[in-house]
Fold this sequence. Notes:
This protein is α/β, with parallel strands linked by helices. The protein has eleven helices and 14 strands. The radius of gyration is 21 Å and the shape is globular.
Amino acid sequence: MEQIKIGIVGYGNLGKGVKKGISNYPDMNLTAIFTRRPVESINITEKEIKILNVDDAQKYKDKIDVMILCGGSATDLPVQGPAFAKMFNTIDSFDTHNKIPEYYEKMNKAASENENTSAISIGWDPGLFSINRTLFEAILPQGKGYTFWGPGVSQGHSDAIRRIKGVKNAIQYTVPINESIDRVRSGDNPDLKTDEKHLRKCYVVIEKDANQEKIEEQIKNMPDYFADYQTEVNFISEKELQKEHSQMPHGGFVIRSAKTGENKENKQLLEFSLKLDSNPEFTASVLIAYARAVHKLNQEGTTGAKTVFDIPLSYLSIKSPAELRRQML
């Protein structure tokens, strides 16, 4: 079996999730991990996996088939994405929804000009939820669609808080408002404002002498992340954060509610949901499956940036088209 050679850029929670997950994919081999940290600070048991400084990545252009970019969307991927797309086939989980079109254009230019293939915004939202929103709307065009996230830890929002000057560590929980979910499931088809769907609960550890009031204000007014939501900021100790908030659960729902029939007499409800013990490990699993698709596309000569809307479902699978027709259809 051909081995797809994988590289990881960034070794935080998501990068660690990718490393753990690779062993579940018999057609993939983890070649190297690239980090901005001191190389000696990354301790792994597998001798065959190289730990390298991110600046050395260009030396591996012909040794890695797909580079999985595991940086954050706030500051890492806008810079790293186009830079790596010039050198490698890439996949990332860029999740700042309203900036995806702009990010796509930059990634498409970088990848296309260098005959590479880059899958962007891959994960469960954007990603799997995006697929279901589109599918459900196509099936029930006269209905209403809703997305609820949580309860769980948002990696992107937590990372955005940690980037604030004076913040030592932070975790952010997205919590859906149950009353709103119940209204949607009942077929009420409510018009819900952003702050009627979710709460954002932040647990923040600050540096000594940091301005707590200023940090809370920056969090609550952060565009694209917190400004439009009911946001609760709790300042706690590092010890409490490690004890009470060290897990990474998440989940959510995509719901489409509609009525069909000549007189719209029949209620129809479509729902896709996730309940995850480990958000980074699940997101990593989605990235790895799509890395297989990126490799297939590039081998066929398809280049440029791609989203979940552009990639055939069959390309994610290790099974052949004949096997899929026989076993899954």
